[in-house]
Structure formats: structure tokens, C-alpha cells
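TICKET: design request
STATUS: open
ATTACHED STRUCTURE:
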């Protein structure tokens, strides 16, 4: 098997061949003098000169052939194969592959030739591999978002400092995981599909799109008359920055973004198709015009499709033998829910809504809206609504709440509702859920304990808050719970 040769020995052989070639040319040149004399003295010297020139050409050809014997042509590497390192010039090549860490990085560079190349060169100097790169154009620069695979021993501060030295500003770093390897078009299509199938997925889709952020919804009744128009103007202006347009200034000297209260770069406000406002907040990382455009596209998709709720339902058999159906609730269930309120005792309504019984009805419109969470309805075989369960989005947290009609309590309905709500929370990527109830509500406490999850109890002024930590899958993301039969009444 041939052995690899070092570059030093190859250079020595090459110099030897060059010296031999020069010596041969010198010999030919020395012989050319007598030949020239013969040309001038002999009438047949012209033919001899032609023969001599041919000899020189042959000698030059032989020299070129000889030098070519010393060159080596590498066979093309197979597709997907890594280039073979020079073991003589790379002392670290004999060591085992070093551990790596995935990073998400954003930095802002001037939009001039060579600036991005300087940042990439700085990363390469630390043996950092650029896995993906997205660009967010601005009016006077570009926000570049990288997914990097860096040596585990490389400190984040060193990485950020090298990028700053290469011309990057406002650099932001965060640990990434395998889920970040999905390219942006695929992620957007997945989020759009989820939003198209279920209106309740819009806040969740926005949260997955922007990473660590807080999302809140404000109903239309709590907004000023012109707030929606101001928000639309603000979004249009922010997207206009990407195209180099300047945001128009109002007569009072404020822009549309400032007038709507959305001028903070880490705050995004979107007009909810239901008439309210969705507010997205992300600490330390300003939203770019590209991100505003993506968010508005999801909101416009939601508006075009209207209210939609999956129609899947489960038929369950209670311990006593009755069959009930469990399905997603929707705004059209308002009349049936109001009728159920009429059949509930004041104590049941007070225990559920923690306030005056007269206020219970006005909460239903909010609870049944898919914009604020996901609700489940329980119906009898005759189609009568007898229980509701709610999973409410509360920023980064999720609240679960149950209401079971008096005559259907202690039959296992509450346990079935709660377990399915926890499954929905896990599917949405939530890490925990909490329930707020009175300390005397033993039924809710027992239902939470039956989840067989780690629980935390907080009691204050007779109010009990029970928080359940959801299970995590092997890759670190929350995993849904398996469906189990109802075997204990609540």
C-alpha cells in the first residue's frame, strides 16, 4: 500500500528535477554556439539549424514529461465524504473528534461586501461550523441568524468577542438543540398547517416561531376604538423598514408604532381576527421586519379560515356504565353552557369561578374562544352538555379548570377531563399546568393527585394553587400522557 509522503520531501524531489532540467538546457545551449558557426560557414547550415531547433523542442518536451512524473493527481472524493486532512501539517488530526455544542446566534452587520465574509472567517478560525444561515434585511444593515456547531470547549464569551472583532454588533447567543436543525420554510409550513386545522393553535404557533417569548391576548371589549387601525399601521411601517421606506410621522411627532404603544423593538402587537389584540414580548432580542411579516402571514391565514375546531370526539364508559362523549368545545356551545349554569348550584359555580355567581355567565364567551386556550365538552348519549374543562394560556404558564354539573359529579368525569387537558398541554409544549381552587375542594385535589405527576401546593387566604410538572420525552420536550381508563370517581 502506498505511503503518504510529507510536503518537505516532495519539495526536495521537485527541486532535484528542476536542477537536472536546467543542466540539460545548459548543455544544449553550449552546443548551440558551434552550430551557429557552422550555419554561417556551410551552405547547408540552414538545414542543420532546423534540425537543431527540433532537438531543442524535443528536449523541452522530455523535460516537461519528466517534471510531470513527480506530480500527484488526487482522485475525486466520493459524494458526502470529508476531505482527508494533511496529517503532517495538522498535529490535532490524530486525536479523536472533539465534542461540539449547538448555538443559535444573531448579529448585525453592515450591508457592504465582505462584512458577512469577515464574520464567517472569524468563526472558521475557532473551528465553528455554520449549519444554517438566515438573513433579515434592514434599511441600513442585515441581521444574520446562524445555527452553529462549535467545539464544546469554546466559551460563549470568546465566540461573541471574535464576532464583534469581525464587525458584528448586537450579538446574541443561545444554546440550541436538535429541533433547531429544521429549516425555516419547513417550520413555517408546519406551523401554518397546525393553525389551519385548529384556531387555538395560533398563539402556540407564534410562540414556536419566536422561541422564548410571552404571548397574551386582549379581548376586543377592552380596547380603544382606533387601536386596531394603529396596530395595522405599525405593522405596515415595520415591514416597510425592510424595504428601505421610512415610517411616516404623525402631526404630533409620533410614528404609528409609537402611537399604538408598540414602539418597543421587543414587543409585537398583532390584530386578532376575533377583534382583540395578540401581544408578543421577547426579552433582549428585538423583532425584525422579517419576523413581523411572518407573524402577520399566520394571523391573516387564521382570519381567512375563520373559527374552526377539530371534530374528533371520544366515547367513554364511566364506572357506573353510562356512556359519555368528550370533544373539543367551541363558541357555538355558549347556549348549552349557559343552560348548564342554570342547572348548577351556587356552591358549584362559586367553587369554579371564585367570585359572585352572577358573574359566571359572562366568563363563558372568553372561555369558549379558541384564542385564549382549548376547551373540552362532555355530553351524554342524549347530547346534553354536563361538564366543561378549560386549558387557558397564561403567558408561559397554563391553567386548567373544571366544571361538572351537580348531578354528574363523583362519576369520574372530572378525572377524564383533567387528564385530557394535561395531554393537550403536553402536546402544546408546556412544561407544567396549575389549578386554582379552594382549599376545601377535595375533588379537584384528588383529581390532580391521580395524574401521578410531581405536584407543588401553594395555599394563601384559603386559595389553593396546585402545579403539576409534565413528563418530558427523551429529547427533553414535554410528552403527552397515555390515555387511561376511568376507574375512580371524582
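STATUS: resolved
RESOLUTION: sequence designed for all positions
ATTACHED SEQUENCE:
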Amino acid at each position: 500500500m502506498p505511503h503518504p509522503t510529507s510536503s518537505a520531501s516532495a519539495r526536495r524531489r521537485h527541486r532535484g528535477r528542476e536542477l537536472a532540467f536546467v543542466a540539460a538546457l545548459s548543455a544544449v545551449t553550449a552546443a548551440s554556439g558551434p552550430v551557429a558557426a557552422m550555419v554561417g560557414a556551410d551552405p547547408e547550415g540552414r538545414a542543420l539549424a532546423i534540425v537543431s531547433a527540433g532537438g531543442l523542442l524535443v528536449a523541452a518536451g522530455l523535460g516537461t514529461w519528466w517534471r510531470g512524473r513527480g506530480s500527484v493527481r488526487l482522485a475525486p472524493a466520493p459524494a458526502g465524504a470529508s476531505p482527508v486532512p494533511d496529517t503532517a501539517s495538522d498535529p490535532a488530526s490524530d486525536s479523536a473528534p472533539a465534542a461540539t455544542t449547538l448555538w443559535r446566534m444573531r448579529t448585525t452587520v453592515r450591508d457592504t461586501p465582505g462584512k458577512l465574509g469577515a464574520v464567517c472567517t472569524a468563526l472558521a478560525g475557532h473551528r465553528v461550523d455554520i449549519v444554517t444561515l438566515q438573513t433579515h434585511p434592514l434599511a441600513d444593515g442585515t441581521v444574520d441568524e446562524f445555527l452553529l456547531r462549535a467545539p464544546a470547549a469554546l466559551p460563549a464569551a470568546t465566540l461573541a468577542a471574535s464576532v464583534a472583532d469581525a464587525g458584528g454588533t448586537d450579538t446574541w447567543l443561545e444554546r440550541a438543540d436538535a429541533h433547531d436543525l429544521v429549516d425555516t420554510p419547513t417550520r413555517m409550513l408546519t406551523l401554518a398547517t397546525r393553525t389551519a386545522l385548529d384556531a387555538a393553535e395560533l398563539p402556540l404557533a407564534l410562540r414556536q416561531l419566536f422561541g422564548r417569548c410571552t404571548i397574551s391576548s386582549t379581548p376586543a371589549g377592552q380596547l380603544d376604538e382606533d387601536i386596531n387601525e394603529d396596530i395595522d399601521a405599525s405593522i405596515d411601517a415595520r415591514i416597510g423598514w425592510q424595504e428601505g421606506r421610512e415610517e411616516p410621522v404623525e402631526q404630533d411627532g409620533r410614528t404609528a408604532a409609537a402611537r399604538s404603544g408598540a414602539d418597543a423593538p421587543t414587543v409585537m402587537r398583532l390584530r386578532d381576527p376575533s377583534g382583540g389584540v395578540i401581544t408578543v414580548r421577547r426579552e433582549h432580542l428585538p423583532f425584525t421586519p422579517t419576523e413581523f411579516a411572518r407573524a402577520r402571514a399566520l394571523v391573516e391565514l387564521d382570519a381567512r379560515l375563520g373559527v374552526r375546531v377539530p371534530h374528533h370526539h371520544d366515547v367513554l364508559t364511566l364506572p357506573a356504565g353510562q356512556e359519555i362523549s368528550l370533544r373539543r368545545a367551541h363558541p357555538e356551545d355558549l347556549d348549552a353552557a349557559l343552560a348548564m349554569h342554570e342547572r348548577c348550584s351556587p356552591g358549584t359555580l362559586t367553587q369554579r369561578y371564585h367570585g359572585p355567581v352572577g358573574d359566571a355567565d359572562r366568563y363563558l364567551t372568553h372561555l369558549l374562544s379558541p384564542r385564549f386556550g382549548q376547551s373540552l365538552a362532555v355530553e351524554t348519549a342524549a347530547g346534553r352538555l354536563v361538564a366543561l374543562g378549560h386549558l387557558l394560556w397564561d403567558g408561559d404558564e397554563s391553567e386548567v379548570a373544571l366544571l361538572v354539573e351537580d348531578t354528574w359529579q363523583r362519576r369520574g368525569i372530572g378525572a377524564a377531563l383533567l387528564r385530557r387537558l394535561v395531554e393537550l398541554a403536553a402536546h402544546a409544549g408546556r412544561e407544567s399546568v396549575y389549578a386554582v381552587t379552594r382549599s376545601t375542594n377535595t375533588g379537584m385535589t384528588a383529581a390532580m393527585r391521580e395524574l401521578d405527576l410531581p405536584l407543588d401546593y401553594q395555599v394563601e387566604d384559603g386559595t389553593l394553587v396546585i402545579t403539576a410538572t409534565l413528563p418530558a420525552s427523551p429529547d427533553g420536550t414535554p410528552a403527552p400522557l397515555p390515555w387511561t381508563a376511568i376507574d375512580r370517581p371524582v
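CLOSING REMARK: Residues 98-181 form a domain with the Alpha-Beta Plaits fold (CATH 3.30.70.260). The radius of gyration is 37 Å.
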